[in-house]
Amino acid sequence: MAVLHLLAIVAFHLLIISEAKDSDFIYKEFTNPKRDTFVYGTFPKDFAWGVATASYQIEGAWDADGKGPSIWDTFTHNGRSHKKQNADVACDSYNKYEEDIAMMKKLGVSHYRFSLSWPRILPKGFANEVNREGIEYYKKLLDALHKANIEPMVTLYHWDLPQVLQDMGGWENEMMANYFAAYADLCFQAFGEQVKLWITFNEPTIFSLFGYELGTDAPGLPHNGYGAYRVGHTVIKAHAKAWHLYDQKYRKSQGGKISIVLHGNWFEPKNPDSEFDRAVAEKASYVELGWFANPIFGDGDYPAIMKDMIANNSRIQQLSTSRLPEFTEDDKRMIEGTFDFFGLNHYTTNLVAHKPTVSEHFASFFMEFNGEMSQDKESWPEPAGSPWLYPVPWGLRKLLNHIKQTYGDVPIYITENGFSEGEGPLNTKDTARINYYKAYINEALKAYLIDSVNLKGYFAWSLMDNFEWRSGYSERFGLYHVDFEDPERPRTPRESANVYAKIIKNNGFPVQAGTDHTEL
Ligand code: NOJ
């Protein structure tokens, strides 16, 4: 039986691949037939198709109805983002959530990933002073989603820490693990009947590094070489505590799933013939994702390659202990296995070349590798409105395979993937974004169909243009355009919204798909 099943799968794959024609390359830059040929086929029946957003980036209403300030309110009010912009109003989704849901209905998504604002629910950070209006807002949103038949995926922490908790040290304070668990407990209690997919943290690598090492994001602390590792250490414990809490106290009655969302780039050796480039690219893949993935999805601890690297560099810097904190055996037992699925945010690929960068005098995560990151500006397609974002679709397939090989056959949701454009007048013909979505979703399809990666869902970032952190409104990721000059914040679908709707309707790219978009 198993053999027959296998033969059927192989035959099916041969069929869909042979259907592809030479013209079936989305990007003229990528025409390696084995790697880049467009493949026809569909995702599993129950595949989750979604869009994603985050509270600070869309809600606005920054001080309405009892909400407390977050570190991002403070950061932007201090003029630290592009053109001193802030998200005081943003997309005004606090008031316009019904319109947002109507847009989702038109797209035909089955899922919506959004985040809860901790300071809207607990203005003072702690769970003993609950802001009822904050709870009511999210309950209304969740009710409206259920009425629209859209399943919520809810992130507890997407970077907007209550300012009062930052005043106590923020994520560098180890007590934060307990404070977070108390906040999570309250959320499970308040919303758990309506939420079956929980995310503890969004992209801890990014907020640790940019907030507490480089200081370019809130809370803006340039604690080079130390801050991010301390933050990561506490965040991993906070995640594990929240996971166990859900597991022990709520899972049975509420029946949901809970995990974490990690940021993952793919790293490709700049010179594939160089042993050094290959080694440093491999190290980058194991460390960027593995910093958080290895403790949670692996053996409860940081990857050995990361521990060795930072210990060695610390020695070079004449330090008697490593800058990377250590987990106790009890910590490791608590952390290992605290996942129900793998949430992956993926946008792009980097080339990595070996280059000695470690300094005796200056410590930074970005220098630990003895590698230099770059992009292939000659032969990759034009970057997005975000200068770091080059479309390299095959990188997604490689990364999905890397996750499967490194962490096992874990169910994976692509919780974010998307493409930005710069500021400018409304341009609904967003061909570059359309190409990006088609090519990346097609690589996800290859990973599922050909490589048997256990892919459960795909979320586009983002439903609409929103506040892109330190870049303000200068980088637009929306399937819908938002006019931030207009107090009504009108939303207009771009052509990519039509294309995404069609992909969802077809559950991928069936051979007989007809035209490639649905009019909204
Ligand atoms: C990942 C983050 O989760 C999200 O907040 C951000 O807007 C997108 N990347 C695009 O940079």
Any descriptors?
520 residues, alpha/beta, TIM Barrel, 8-stranded parallel beta barrel, 3-stranded mixed sheet, 18 helices, 14% strand, binds 1-deoxynojirimycin
Using the alpha-carbon principal axes, give the shape. globular
Oligomer: single chain
Strand-residue proportion? 5-15%
Q: Count helical runs.
A: 18
The biggest beta sheet reads: 8 strands, parallel, barrel
Strand arrangement, major sheet = 2-3-4-5-6-8-11-13
- Strand elements, count: 17
The CATH class designation is: Alpha Beta
The radius of gyration is 22 Å
**CATH architecture heading:** Alpha-Beta Barrel
Which ions and ligands are bound to the chains? 1-deoxynojirimycin
- The separation of the N and C termini measures 45 Å
By helix and strand content, what is the structural category?
Answer: alpha/beta
- State the low-pLDDT regions, or none: 6-19
Q: Which fold name fills CATH's third level, the topology?
A: TIM Barrel
Count of structural domains: 1
Question: What's the overall average pLDDT, rounded?
Answer: 95
Helix content: 40-55%
CATH superfamily: Glycosidases
